[in-house]
Amino acid sequence: MAIAESFQLSDGYSVYAGVRARRDGVVEDAAFALAKIGGTDGTSAASKILEALLRRDVSLVMLDGCIVSFYNWVDGEALYAKFKKPVACYVFEEPEGRVEEAVRKLFTDWEVRIEAIKKLGPPTVYYTKSGYKIYIRAWGIDPVDAGRAAEYCTGFGKIPEPLRVAKIIAGAARQFLKTLGKFRFLW
Questions:
Q1: How many domains does the chain have?
Q2: Element (H, E) at 3
Q3: Where are any strands of DSSP class E within the chain?
């Protein structure tokens, strides 16, 4: 199972898409949720998707990043505690920038945000057999095992197929919602 998001700052919201996929990457179902850009509702959006898609046979929840939507976040530990399924957060590019410094400048509730981001913990670097570097945070599963799981369902490149598909679907849904906004007079 995988959850990814898509946003543009001008939208004011981020579209989260989740897919339930088999180990071979074949997608069986999808669900959506919205979160506010710069909000604090990323975990809630991911939780709504899990409520819609989770089954007993799901063995891992994959997240495309934990710090998302302009410093919103998804709390993998909270999802693991609530749903009793291992959760792994993957980042495919080297983390850059000074997150704490930016959060202090941008948000009045910066203390709460920094505490939540620190609670995520530092990522573990995992090197794939094909030489890619993945940054992994994990709850209920060893980060190395989460890396192996990602490799297992990666057809090409470094992004596991369920996350790649979830990201594509999130982007398409965001574009569709923007199109609907242009035609509100029809309803």
A1: 1
A2: strand 2-7
A3: 2-7, 13-21, 27-36, 61-64, 67-68, 72-73, 87-91, 124-127, 133-139
| Residue 167 one-letter amino acid | K
pLDDT single digits (tens) 99-126:
889 999 999 999 999 999 999 999 999 9
pTM value > 0.90: yes
Token code pair at residue 25 = 């990457």
CA 60/CA 38 separation, integer angstroms: 27
Residue 172 pLDDT more than 80?
yes
Tell me how far apart the alpha carbons of residues 100 and 110 are, in angstroms, rounded to a whole number: 8
Q: Are strands 124-127 and 133-139 parallel, antiparallel or unpaired?
A: antiparallel
Residue 121, domain CATH: 3.30.2170.10
Domain that holds residue 47: 2-186
Q: Please report the pLDDT score of residue 183 as a whole number.
A: 55
